[in-house]
Structures are given as C-alpha cells and as structure tokens.
Automatic annotation (TrEMBL):
Pfam families noted in UniProt: IQ
UniProt name for this protein: RIIa domain-containing protein
Signal sequence segment: none
Database matches in SMART domains: IQ
C-alpha cells in the first residue's frame, strides 16, 4: 500500500516529535498526533526564538568589539605618551571641551 506525500510527512513529523520529546529515542507507547495548526505555531515560535537569539548574539559581538577598540585606543595612547616622554618631548595635558569653548568665547568677544 502506497502512502501519499501528506501521510508520509505527517508520519515523519510525528516520529521527529516523539524522538525529540522522549528520553533515549522513540516512545512507541504514546502516539502523539500534533495538529497542523500546532505544528505551524511551534515552527513560528522556534523561528522567532532563533531570530531573537541571533540578534542578541550580534549585539553582544558589537559591544565586545567596541570594548576591544576602546582598550586598544587607551593602550596606544599610553604607549605613545610613554615613548614621547622617553624622548624628552613635553606633553601638555589635553584641554577639556568646556575650557576650550570658554577660551574661544573670551577671544571672540
């Protein structure tokens, strides 16, 4: 007896569900029939969970990359200042933006 493709797919999905939800493989004592609507809902939920997980991981990667870039910038600045100090170059501390803006306003008035 030949089965049509829908019956084969339904049987395949049922076996997959049984294997996934049992410990140690198939549980033939319980034949669980999942309706097409339930299967569709499960598929939608799993796709959304996957999307949210990928989005979360992408955000974490961006944060880690930004943190690494900031650390590299601080280290490079430190090494440059140290190198210039060893050469005897006088380094003046950078001015804050507020003091620079205040000086600009005084000079222009």
């Amino acid at each position: 007896m030949r089965r049509n493709s829908n019956e084969r797919l339904e049987l395949f999905d049922n076996r997959k569900d049984l294997k996934r939800h049992s410990i140690g493989g198939y549980s033939h004592s319980q034949q669980i029939k999942v309706s097409p609507e339930d299967r569709a809902a499960i598929k939608i939920q799993s796709e959304i969970r996957g999307y949210l997980t990928r989005k979360h991981l992408e955000n974490e990667k961006k944060q880690n990359k930004n943190a690494a870039t900031k650390i590299q910038a601080y280290i490079r600045g430190y090494l440059t200042r140290k190198h210039l100090e060893e050469k005897g170059v006088i380094i003046t501390p950078p001015r804050s933006r507020t003091s620079t803006n205040a000086r600009y306003e005084i000079e222009n008035n």
